[in-house]
Structure formats: structure tokens, C-alpha cells
């Protein structure tokens, strides 16, 4: 089941660029779009089958300011005109967030793309819309953090609330805790935030524990699954299905917003989970089906982290775009020769030959019970125990 869908993309979105030595290279977005285009996932310029590409507008200052402090925005403009300037208290000019020319404009453009995707979903122009350049979930109202300057996801959710949405569910599958989005809506019972991430005991930003469940009047609206390092497809999917669908069904949102960082992959250089492209694809399919089950298919999709820029990100997000477009790719599909030649010419590397890592994801359902001697099961149980009762659910298997 699917319906009308689009991807919001403009090549200038890759102006959000921290420089050639930074892990979050915009090349990952370029390679994704090229791979998706060559595999027929994206509609050709002259029309035909495939996911429609629509232009990405620039967000106005007023729109960005629905989440971000004007003084912070002024600081971003300042460093964008003087890229050698450091404003450390605002997170600008740090190793994570080096300054670059036009920083405000590039960051506002990403916000505009996500809000345009939100607008198209909310008005019914499409059922699903994606902005793979977005998902900048660490940015705080007054501070850049973790490669994220403006929090496009939070602005998109705020736009939905301001335009009539009564409940929004946000599911974040990035390997890092979605701390910025959670922070913005921590006291807002209209937004359910669920983050599945490697435990903050081991990984940036060091937050996102089961006991973090929402502020006064919004208890149970923040949900955190802190996964042990080494969690692979089977364990990750076990955790996802034990937590996400029951809570989202009970919350009954008007729209589902997801952050699809693919840095949970075993080859990602910045983290320690062990998913495959096949496991990530299974998560995308589950989220697609959940959107149709609980909110009539209204699904806003963003990108996020992902730093294996050749071997993982293009394949994972091409699968994501294919699912958004209602035509999932066979995992056994070969990558186009032209795409591999482009990778070789551009980077001197051999790109992957197939859209699969050769795994068939499977997991043990939580209803069979849990083993308290296993770290993963203890983590899942802790999240369910902390949040399910607050949402009117039984946390026992």
C-alpha cells in the first residue's frame, strides 16, 4: 500500500558542507541521488514512473525562529560571513561544527526542504515526502551540536502543530540519540518522540536513557531505547518491534515523522552498532506500514547521520526513497555500472556491486519473553517499564 509521494531536493542543498575532512560529506547525498536516479527510483526529468522530485525552498527567518533563538541565528549569520570566527558557546567553529561561508543560508535551506515536505504531506498533496538532506536532530534552540546547525526536524514538527496537527509521532533510528528534537518537545504532550540509539554510555551525545520520559504534563511522551554496542539486525529489530509499534498505535498520531540516519550500519566509522543495509531496509518497510496503519499514510521522512559515504549511505537511502515512492527495490538488484564508474572516477574507490549485504533480517518477537541476563533485553525491558504504563500500556510481554 502506498500513494502519491515526493522527494524534496535541490543540488544546492549540498552547500551545507563542513569541508573535505569532515565526516558528514555532502558527497553522500549526491551519490544517493545519482544511484536512485540510475535505478529508476526517481522520476526522469521528462516524466514517467518514479518518485517525483520537487524544489526545496529557503526557510524564512520567521520559520527558523519558531524553534531557534534569534540571537543564535544572528551568530550563525556572523560566522557565515567570517568563517574563521569561532563562537564556542554557540557550538560554532568547533570540530563538530566548523564554520563555512553562507552557513545560515545553507542551514535554512535544509529547514525549508523539510518544511516543504511536511506541507505537502499535511495538505494531502502527497502521502509520503522525504528530505534526505535533513534530519539534523542534534541542533538545540540556541546552539549547534553534532554536525547540526538548525534543527529542520523540530521546525517541521512545529509547522505541523501550527497548521492543525493535534498529535505528531517522531521516530528516530539514527545511531545517536535524537536529543535536539526531544529537547524541543520534552514538555509537549502533543509530540511523541521515540529514539533508538547506541547507549549514551558509549556514544555522543551521552544522553537518551530510559528514565528520560518527558517533562511535567508530558510524562511518557519521550521514549528512549539505549542499545548496547554490537547490536545487529536481529537485536535492533527485536527492540524496534517491542517498543515502537505499540506506542505509536496507542498515541494515534495525525502524522508520522521519521529520522532515518543510517549510521547504525556495521561499517559506519563513528559508532558501534552492527546493522546491515538489509536490516535498515526492514526498518524502513516497518515504518512505512506503520504510517499506513495509524495515520492514513501521512509520513514525513528525513535523512540524518551516515558516514560510510560510498558503501552504505547511497544504498540505504536509495532503498528508503524506493519505499517512500511505493516501489521497493529487490535487495538482490545490482548497482548500475555507470554509478560504480562515477564512484571510481570521483573517489578512486570501488562501489558496492549489489543493493544488499546478503542478509535476511529476522528477529525474535518480544511476546516470547525476555532474558534478564542479556544486555539488549534489559535495555528493552527498561524502556517498556519506564514508558508503557505512562501511555496506558502493559509493559510485560
From TrEMBL:
Pfam families xref list: Hist_deacetyl
Swiss-Prot/TrEMBL GO biological process terms: acetoin metabolic process; epigenetic regulation of gene expression
GO MF term set: histone deacetylase activity
Domain Histone deacetylase: 22-322
InterPro entries: AcuC, His_deacetylse_dom
Protein's UniProt name: Acetoin utilization protein AcuC
Organism of derivation: Nocardioides panacis
Amino acid at each position: 500500500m502506498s500513494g502519491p509521494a515526493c522527494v524534496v531536493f535541490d543540488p544546492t542543498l549540498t552547500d551545507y558542507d563542513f569541508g573535505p575532512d569532515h565526516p558528514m560529506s555532502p558527497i553522500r547525498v549526491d551519490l544517493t541521488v545519482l544511484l536512485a536516479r540510475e535505478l529508476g527510483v526517481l522520476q526522469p526529468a521528462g516524466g514517467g514512473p518514479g518518485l517525483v522530485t520537487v524544489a526545496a525552498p529557503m526557510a524564512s527567518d520567521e520559520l527558523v525562529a519558531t524553534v531557534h533563538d534569534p540571537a543564535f541565528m544572528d551568530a550563525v549569520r556572523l560566522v557565515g560571513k567570517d568563517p574563521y570566527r569561532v563562537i564556542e558557546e554557540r557550538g560554532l567553529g568547533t570540530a563538530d561544527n566548523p564554520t563555512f561561508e553562507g552557513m545560515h543560508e545553507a542551514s535554512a535551506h535544509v529547514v525549508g526542504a523539510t518544511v516543504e515536505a511536511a506541507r505537502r504531506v499535511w495538505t494531502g498533496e502527497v502521502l509520503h515526502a522525504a528530505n534526505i538532506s535533513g534530519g539534523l536532530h542534534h541542533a538545540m534552540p540556541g546552539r549547534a551540536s553534532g554536525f547540526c546547525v538548525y534543527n529542520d526536524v523540530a521546525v517541521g514538527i512545529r509547522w505541523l502543530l501550527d497548521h492543525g496537527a493535534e498529535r505528531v509521532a517522531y521516530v528516530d533510528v539514527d545511531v545517536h540519540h535524537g536529543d535536539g528534537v526531544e529537547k524541543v518537545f520534552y514538555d509537549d504532550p502533543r509530540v511523541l518522540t521515540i529514539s533508538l540509539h547506541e547507549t549514551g554510555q558509549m556514544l555522543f551525545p551521552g544522553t537518551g536513557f530510559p528514565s528520560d520520559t518527558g517533562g511535567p504534563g508530558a510524562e511518557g511522551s519521550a521514549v528512549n531505547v539505549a542499545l548496547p554496542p554490537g547490536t545487529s539486525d536481529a537485536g535492533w529489530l527485536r527492540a524496534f518491534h517491542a517498543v515502537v509499534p505499540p506506542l505509536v498505535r496507542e498515541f494515534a498520531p495525525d502524522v508520522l515523522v521519521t529520522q532515518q540516519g543510517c549510521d547504525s550500519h556495521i561499517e559506519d566509522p563513528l559508532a558501534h552498532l552492527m546493522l546491515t543495509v538489509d536490516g535498515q531496509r526492514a526498518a524502513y518497510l516497518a515504518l512505512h506500514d506503520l504510517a499506513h496503519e495509524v495515520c492514513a499514510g501521512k509520513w514525513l521522512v528525513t535523512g540524518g547521520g551516515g558516514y560510510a559515504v560510498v558503501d552504505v549511505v547511497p544504498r540505504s537511502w536509495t532503498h528508503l526513497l524506493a519505499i517512500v515512492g511505493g516501489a521497493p527495490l529487490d535487495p538482490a538488484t545490482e548497482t548500475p555500472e555507470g554509478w560504480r564508474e562515477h564512484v571510481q572516477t570521483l573517489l578512486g574507490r570501488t562501489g558496492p556491486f549489489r543493493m544488499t549485504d546478503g542478509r535476511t533480517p529476522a528477529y525474535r518477537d518480544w511476546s516470547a519473553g525476555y532474558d534478564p541476563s542479556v544486555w539488549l533485553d534489559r535495555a528493552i525491558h527498561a524502556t517498556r517499564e519506564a514508558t508503557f504504563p505512562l501511555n496506558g500500556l502493559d509493559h510485560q510481554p
